[in-house]
Amino acid sequence: MFPIRTNYAGVTPAASEKTMLHVPTGAFEMQLLHEALSRARMRRPQAGRTTTSTEATRSARTVAMTSRNQSARDLGVL
């Protein structure tokens, strides 16, 4: 199941072994989705004195749903 490794005393490996965390495809998009949805739960920003509209042109929920659909298309789900 696991490869057998022998470590000889006093011998240093020729190449240093580096392990990288394997991130499955779509994990980064899911993190972005999670952040966008957490922002969607926040209170809406109040309009300032100089502007009558809020600072966001698109809601975080709209951005999250668009990115979720795009990620699903990229992964071949939809």
TrEMBL record:
Residues 49-62 have a biased composition (Low complexity). It comes from the Bacteria. Residues 40-78 are annotated as: Disordered. This is Uncharacterized protein.
